[in-house]
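Review session, final week

We close the course with one last complete record, chosen because it touches almost every idea we covered. It is Cytochrome C biogenesis protein, a protein from Brevibacillus porteri with 186 residues. Go through it on your own first, then we will talk.
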Amino acid sequence: MKKYHNAWAIVVLLGLLGWGIFDAEFLNRQEPIASSGEHGNGQIGIEKGNTAPDFELQQVGGGTVKLSDLRGKKVILNLWATWCPPCRAEMPDMQRYYEENKEQGVVILGVNLTDTETSPEAVADFVKLYGITFPILLDPEKEVANVYKAISIPTSYIIDSNGVVQNKYIGPMSEEIMENMLSAIK
């Protein structure tokens, strides 16, 4: 009986691994970005061409950040958690990219799915451990996670300087991916 139990566990793990690869490889295909100078289609939503839904959240270390206050800047809105291995893997690249591009009007907003964490202090400890200097926001009520449909994390939205959603990316982002997505928008 134990032999079948182990085999079943292996099948389940392989299935989860396969789903993760499918999710990361096939669902992340990016459409070319049309016009980077458009003001969007006038609708608020998370689809490409929509004005990104506004929110205001508490920042680790104090203060609040409101998405609409960042108009005029390119924004990577990254939904993540400290316990998520792909999220942890992308953080060093995100930090490097932010440091290299913040003077050019690039902002990375890390929205932590705080309701899934052991405590807000665990998030603050993570930020300190990884030396993260871009804004990390706490989403304890899943307000932003629900609006931006963070079903699989990390999930990132690329928002242009007019506040319009230009792209969505599911999975860990590298510096190269961020550069390719942001260089194509206004």
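Two points worth writing down before the exam:
The beta strands are 56-59, 64-66, 74-80, 106-112, 136-138, 155-159, 165-170.
The first helix runs from residue 2 to 26.
Good luck, everyone.
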